[in-house]
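Help!! Second protein's tokens look totally different from the first
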Amino acid sequence: MKRMVDPDVRLLQAAADPTRLAILRRLSDEGPVCACELADPAGVSQPTVSHHLKVLREAGWVDGERRGSWIWYSIRPDAVERFRGLAAGIAPGAARPASALGSGASQAAAARD
């Protein structure tokens, strides 16, 4: 499978994983959190948390700050703004009258004729 390079796709894919979404929610609720505190609540091992944090970091969701021997992670405000912008750009299309909503197959056939 081809790896996506579109930064918006990477941002959305990173947040779509249940464990990563849980990490993002925790960081959103609590602010900076030490990586060592994320394993037990997430119900995964520390190496797994490290992998998820790497994915979030590469997608632009989080930054890490070394404090002694630990790394504290926080959500990047610009990632939140990008996410909001993506969500704001998705809306229902304009309403159309029922007569304009013919079946896709009949419209395709008419276009070929």
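Here's the second one for comparison:
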Amino acid sequence: MARRRSRCLERMVVLVQGVNVAVVGATGAVGQAMIATLVRRNFPWATLKLLASKRSVGKRVMVGEHSLTVEEATPEAFAGVDIALFSAGGDVSLKLAPEAVARGALVIDNSCAYRMHPDVPLVVPEVNGKDLFAHKGIIANPNCSTIQMVVALNPIYRKYGIKRIIVSTYQAASGAGSRAIDELRDGALAMLAGEEPRAEVLPVGKLARHYPLAFNILPQIDVFEENGYTKEEMKMVNETKKIFHDADISVTPTAARVPVVYGHSEAVYVETVKPFDLAELKAELRAGEGIVVKDDPALQEYPQPLEAAGQLEVFVGRIRKDLDDDRGLSLWVVADNILKGAAWNAVQIAERWIARDGAGR
């Protein structure tokens, strides 16, 4: 009981005084979204440190109504930091995350560096939030396309079980960074003017061949592996199994890049373990955490990336049974890939960590 009182007192002190937060990769698209989400959520920070590479040092970044100066991300920069939100790429995370942990910080990493590490929880709070409390200093954010899919499927998995998932993704240009957004916009203008669009960015990777995204679809995200699937597709396979703690789920993905700026869409087909009633299943989805069901064929209502952009939730629609298999189900799933697919999921993890007794300490 005494220990319990002590932990509760610690939690009260942390919530009154706030926590010291660092954002690594503060000038990038996801880093900027992390900062905006911290402000949007009234996150209880005492101090907020913005870190980036040496070339960004001295830049000013707006945090709400205030302007903060970017500092260099070095091991020493993490002294006194309680939570470090990383979104600066895998190499930076591999180098600096252990340094931050050694100085007492909890690292929430948005790169792929630690996702499949056996000692690192891979967390989507609505799905496996309890896993975050088993961390050893680092918690990994899953891939954006995985996050929205498992949020949508979680109520179905818990109620009926899932045997197989077949998913096709329609992923926005923003998932490939600001250069891809610029090239999409420039390419659209060029084609409307009857000119040839430049193609220098997509697909991402050290390849000799690139293709325009404007008025086009690229059935490749990241590089191909020997099995014919891309790294992006294999992330969905491996991460889904880890998040659900179920190695027996079969996942067959196809990932494509489409000419949309923000918002990933997914056509998801699942085969459940138990039979389901469609009306009951829809009720389970409506009650699911972080899910907004938008599904009314009579009114032609369904999720769209334009509407999901800027929103924190995962939107689900086009919910229908397989015509021949009473355990087959099709869904259309849409979410903002920069928010729920990255920044919001990371901030959400941080919120849950500080909300527990003792603020996770």
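Reply: Different proteins will give different token patterns, so don't panic. Residues 2-141+342-360 form a domain with the Rossmann fold fold (CATH 3.40.50.720).
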